[in-house]
Amino acid sequence: MIPSPTSRMKPPELKYGWRIGEKKLWALIKSQFPDAIQLSMSPELDDDGNEPDLPIEEFSRLHPDIDATFFSKALIDSILKYLDIPITKTSRSTVSVDYLCDSQGHPDIGLTVSSTWVGKVLDEPSYCKIKALVSPNEDAQWYLSYYHWQWERQVPKQAPKPKAAKKASTTVAAATATASDCQQDEAHTRGTKPYDRKHVFSQQPLERRKIPRYLIPLPSARVKPPELKYGWRIGEEKFWDLIHSHFQDAIQYSMFPELDDDGNEPDVPLEEGHLYIDSNATFFGLAIVDNILKYLDVKVTDAHRTLLIKMDYLCASQGKPDIGLVVASTYTNRALLEPYFSKLKNLVSPNEDAKWYLSYKNWQWRRQVPKQASKPKVAKKSSI
């Protein structure tokens, strides 16, 4: 069950850890790792996918975002600090929060400390410390991965030649620069109507600073307008140049090279212990947001991370997505103000103003359950 790069088949992934459950992990986070809690402008949806019936004021404050907290890098970093383990790219890949299934196949939240696909494991003192915190009366178990539970075909890798190491690393670097194109197209083109999308996206971006009032969502309305995002469509190549020149600490790494345009791993020998640049994790991780906030001299807080800066796909008028930097959204009702906006503009796109782009995901009008305006409190009668 241990994968071999030279084999034509890759076995299912096994993860070693504890199936804690959502309620227990959330209680553990609140008691031990409160700094890892992520916040959102919208309250959590109910079991039917609807927003809870709350007063309008509740939609103007921050609420805990359980899913974002469970799968955030902040939680992993907090656990590593608790274990007195230095926070590095390798140690972050050792601890993971993931769905683990019982023998009936029912998934629930779990904490894992090893994986057959990663090949890293906690040392004995760290394992005992996290076990005492998470599940003192139960040893960790091997669980079949919720996503990688099947055998998969793979292109076998030839054993590296002694004098080809330098050439191989060059091949990895070249493959990394273009690997994410296929992932972008596949992840963002499912479930759309080509004709409708093409027509709608041809009417954007909007270059004016102010947008029509009917495009601002209201909790009391029966329909919710599409989301508009204010920023710059930078492009992957330019954004990588920006990261290498200003935000190198934000670059994320993986144990495996990125896939090629056909969804296969590049045909290069895998070097044990070698880390490869992970484009998607770099573009959409918290590290890049934190680096930009520090560059702007803005305090790094959960609210600023969530509301002020975001990396997202922005589309040209032909509907083609590319990497963009967003500083405002009609769904969050927050924006990066001066002088921080001008400082970021001078860095990212000094000769081009930000524009309003239609959200790549939330581009359609949607029905919603209207929220009733809260009744004004009746003043207490003065006592005689």
Structure explained in plain terms:
The chain folds into two domains: 9-153, no CATH class; 180-367, no CATH class. It is globular. The termini are far apart. With 384 residues, the protein is α+β, with helices and mostly antiparallel strands. 29% of the residues lie in helices and 17% in strands. 21% of the residues are buried. Strand 14 (321-329) and strand 15 form a beta hairpin. It has 13 helices and 17 strands. The strands form six sheets. Strands 10, 13, 14, 15 and 16 form a five-stranded antiparallel sheet that branches. Strands 5-6-2-7 form a four-stranded antiparallel sheet, with no helix packed on it. It has helices at 22-32, 66-70, 73-82, 89-92, 124-134, 165-178, 180-187, 194-201, 236-246, 279-283, 286-295, 302-307, 340-348; strands at residues 9-10, 14-18, 39-40, 63-64, 96-101, 107-115, 141-144, 152-153, 223-224, 228-232, 253-254, 276-277, 310-315, 321-329, 334-335, 355-358, 366-367.
Helices and strands, with pairings:
Blueprint: E1 9-10, E2 14-18, H1 22-32, E3 39-40, E4 63-64, H2 66-70, H3 73-82, H4 89-92, E5 96-101, E6 107-115, H5 124-134, E7 141-144, E8 152-153, H6 165-178, H7 180-187, H8 194-201, E9 223-224, E10 228-232, H9 236-246, E11 253-254, E12 276-277, H10 279-283, H11 286-295, H12 302-307, E13 310-315, E14 321-329, E15 334-335, H13 340-348, E16 355-358, E17 366-367
Antiparallel strand pairs: 1-8, 2-6, 2-7, 3-4, 5-6, 9-17, 10-14, 10-16, 11-12, 13-14, 14-15
